[in-house]
Amino acid sequence: MDNLKELLKPKTFNTVSHAAVVVWILIGVIFLGIFADAEHSESRYDFRCGGAKGENINLVRGRCFELYEKQYNKHDFPIYAFVIMNFFFIGTVCAIYSQIASRTVDQLSPSARNDDLEGQLRDQGNALSSKKLFIAYCCQLFARIVLGVLFMVLQQLLYPLDFPPNFPCYLTSGGSQPRNSTGVWHECHNQRATKKNSWMRAVLVVNGIFLFGILLETVYILLRAWKEDSFMKNSKFLKAHLNPFHADSQNATTSTLSRPEPPQQEKRTEQETNTPQEQHQEEESEENETNIPHLPSKPQQLRKPPLQEFIENTKKIIKEETNQPPQLRSPFSSTPGEGRPAKHLTLDQIYTNLVVVPDIANYDFTGDRRQKLEVYTRSGGENTTPRGPEDILNHENKNVLIVGRPGIGKTLCCTKLLRDWAFNKVFHESSDDKIHFDAAFFIKFRAFNAATDLSLRELLTSSEHSPSDHIDDEVWNYILENPQRVLLIFDGIDEFKHKSKIGEENFEPQFKNRADKKMPLYALYEKLATGKLLNGAAVLTTTRPTALSCIERVNFDKVFEILGFSSEQVEEYVTKFAEEEKHAGETIWRHIGGNANILSLCYIPASCFIICSSLFQMAKFYGSKSLSLPTKLTDIYKKAVKIFYLRHNEEFRGKNFTREDFESDNLPPNVEKKFEKLEKMAFEGIKEGRLVFGGNEVRGLEGSALFHRLPDRETTPLKREQQFCFIHLTMQEFFAARHLANMDETELRNFVSTNIADGKWQLVFQFLAGLMNEKENLPNEIITDLLPVETEEEESKWYNEEWTEDMEPRKVTCWPTEDKKHLAVTLFKCINESSEMEEIVQRKLQQINFNFVNFNDCQLTPVDCASVVTVIKNVQQISHLDLADNNFGPLGCFEICKLLKCSKSQLSWLNLTGNQLTDEGAKYLADAINNNCQLHTLDLWENNISHIGAQHLAEAINNNNCQLRTLDLTRNNISHIGAQHLAEAINNNNCQLHRLNLTRNNISDIGAQHLAEAINNNNCQLRTLYLTENNISHIGAQYLAEAINNNNCQLRTLDLSANNISDI
Length: 1064
Known about the structure:
The protein is α/β, with parallel strands linked by helices. The chain has 40 helices and 23 strands.
């Protein structure tokens, strides 16, 4: 048995395969004994023939037996010899393979590797990645398959399918059997034929079973090798297929020996220093942790194996160093000990999934300005679902390129991926994940701009978050042997000084594909990205679009572009930003969500962070519970442009800036000079209606953080032109305004007066108004002189604050006129950027004789509403304000309510029809009209107000401060519940409501009953009630009829048209 073990060494076979080979040999020995015994014991005496006389029995038996043998064993090849050859040859193949493979297995064994590490390191580039063991194993499988098929075929050819027990024997006197001769027939019987048949079938079945098993194993390992190239490498094949159970038990033993219980005091101290969020993540990490394949250490040493220690240390450092990336440090750091500390964010606290689209997005800048603003977040078409890191990298796409403009979140996305890996949230070995990584390396290209040639080992050692300046030999071997367990993140090709050389190795190879060979980073990166080194490793690369041409020769499995945030994600980001101070967060969101320009700019995460930080500073200054921020759009953009440029432009990378650097409006002289070219280009682009610029126009500024590289444009079939655009339309408009601010007074006055009505210049002039504050040579009158002074008179009974059926039409003086109202809105937005302009315009408005402000159907946004309120809040003669059909939503309503709360306001009539105010807007209005508001008439047609909004309004008119006489809630979504709230309100003696319009709601009979009870009360002062189209039947009509018959009812008009009232 020992000799058999020496011939067929278990370590060279899979456990099941080794057992099968041993069983095969044992079965062969058994069959050999059976057939040898049958061959030697079978003679003519076991052959019985009838019809022979006593003295001729032996002669007849012998002659008939010879005839039997000639007929059924024509080749005269003994069966036992066939069995010997069958089992011996196949066994010999296994023995030869075992002897050949044992040397390789011994070299890969832990003892050999630990005894001669230096020798192994010399050969690791070739020996460790050799496929000799896999090839040898496959060869023996193929040989066994061929021999198995061969012997099954030979058995059919050499021997009959069935040895018959009965044999008719015809004998002549001479022993021959000519057809015309006479002789004697003998019926013979072979007593061993049945047993022989059974054993021959057994040989065939055994051959078939073993052949089928070998075929299954062959198909399995070939499929696995096809899917996973590293499976064919010696050490991987040994661990994964030949001896997995031994490897697992060895690892388990090593793991048990190397995991002593940590001291309780140390564990408690570590928990005390962690934040609750980090403790939760570490607990989650421990719950999900699985066994990592360890390289065994010496049994007597109770320490962690180097691989396990390396992985744990790497993850620990990643958790510590990625908790608060430098990109999330506030630009407004305070002096230590002075005031509140700055709001620095953690990655887990603020990270919001990005909109990522496959391939490079296309941009269509046709359409009006509002459509152009939407392009930045709609360019991905329907594939704009927010994605997490695990959606980008998977088992099908392991070599991935991420493209994105400056500040779009490429680095933070990769950092979040790395951090999630460290906490075992993604790419962790489990039944759900198809890929997982035991080692991850984060390499920033800009860190190697000054580096000389380096090896792969040196590159990984120099990566971000590396636990030490040396990679242990066993760890290094594991990386080389298991590249599919390795994640490499290369961040910022555009920041690499030698990026143009990437791809040269494909055409003129200068360096061998060896892990120990030193070479420049551009060559090393290319070999990793193309699989020439660490084939099977996952490689994730990021770049700005400006560097795409440098990596055209690298074939990526998938290319993604990060588009940034959608408006929903911006809101999510703001909520996370101010999670601990919700009042400040609500204020910031109102300011961002109410301004389409700022909201659109916030699609860039870096801009969103800068704007949120700036607004948060203002919220702290004015008080965290302040409902508004007196912030100028120009001030926000001046701050955002400066911080964004200094943080993301190439020339300032790695430079630390102080709070004073960001707070000052002054730019470095070299930056001012570059901005002059940007300003001219931005101005000419808007003037010509162009948002896209050619490569020649931006020459020298291609790498600017303020530009985005678009897909090239084909000018001819054989020529393409580079295309660029500003990172956002509002950025182009801001720089165009800077260009205008440098004009002389006469030129600027002519330009503004000529183009003030052109929509494409509106935001430019708004920025210009803010920038003019710093220009002593540019008087405010350049803009304020354009304010229209024309008025027009209108007359209608609807303009009366007190409503009666027989009232006379009310005459009002309207400003601005219908043809000037859009100009007035534009000027109001400009004037809002300058306090000096506000004062000038307010004086002008007081000199104009009007009492009605008409801005209906002007497409006002919430920020426009803020501008209107800011300018007219101190103009006391205004009694009527028409803002119908602007669709500015609850945020716009919030701004309008500031006017109602203003002590100087004399507003008594307000039309807010068709503005989608919703219940939130109704709540703001209810709060305003409770605050000694002078409002008598409020029109809220078509505002999607439900019973919740009706309840808010009911509580307001129930207050003795409310002077409302007319409330129009036509075409809303008010049910009988809302009607009940309103009924309870008009029952109260504080309610002064005379006219209530609930046309086209859905109050039904129940709501009609509540209203009938209300008007039946002597406290109710209601004179007119409209209930048209409210699904009221004869039941509801009956309630109302009984109510108006009561002496307490003061109702004069009741409209029930278009209901379901029958003759009953």
